[in-house]
Design a protein that fits this description.
By secondary structure, the protein is mostly helical. Helices cover about 75% and strands about 0% of the residues. The chain has one domain (about 5-140). Helix 4 runs antiparallel to helix 6. The two termini are about 25 Å apart. About 25% of the residues are buried.
């Protein structure tokens, strides 16, 4: 996989994480009961976005080691792909919790936070693992 497609994959994950962030923002504004959980998830997604932006910047950094780390992260079923899969699943669950299309069309919103605190903790833990993996790759790159 060339460097350009590796960076494109990382940028795609950043875009998905932005979608998750936006969905969380909608819930935060509309659902009062789960604000603490929503805020924790939003914060973790924001931190992941920051680390992913640094990973994407590896393509512009000098040296072949940096590009090989980017290639390793972007292997099939590697960290980038796993993170993408987890974020897509999270986005789908958040999107499905916003009520059906018919209710949206008539102006009724059946917005309910789709996760228990335990489910939110699991999502935050998964995002944290991805963040740690990418951060570790960045740290290894600096040695």
């Amino acid at each position: 996989m060339d460097d350009l497609s590796a960076v494109a994959s990382v940028i795609a994950v950043v875009q998905i994480s932005s979608q998750v962030f936006d969905l969380c923002r909608t819930y935060y504004l509309e659902v009062k009961e789960a604000r603490k959980d929503i805020q924790r998830l939003r914060d973790e997604v924001t931190l992941l976005q920051d680390v992913l932006a640094s990973v994407a910047d590896l393509a512009d950094a000098p040296g072949p080691a940096k590009l090989s780390i980017l290639s390793l992260l972007n292997q099939p079923n590697g960290p980038v792909q796993q993170c993408r899969t987890d974020l897509l699943r999270l986005a789908a669950e958040l999107d499905s919790g916003q009520g059906n299309d018919r209710m949206r069309k008539i102006g009724l919103r059946a917005l309910k936070w789709p996760f228990s605190s335990k489910d939110t903790d699991k999502a935050i833990t998964a995002i944290g693992r991805h963040k740690a993996t990418f951060h570790l790759a960045l740290t290894a790159d600096q040695t």
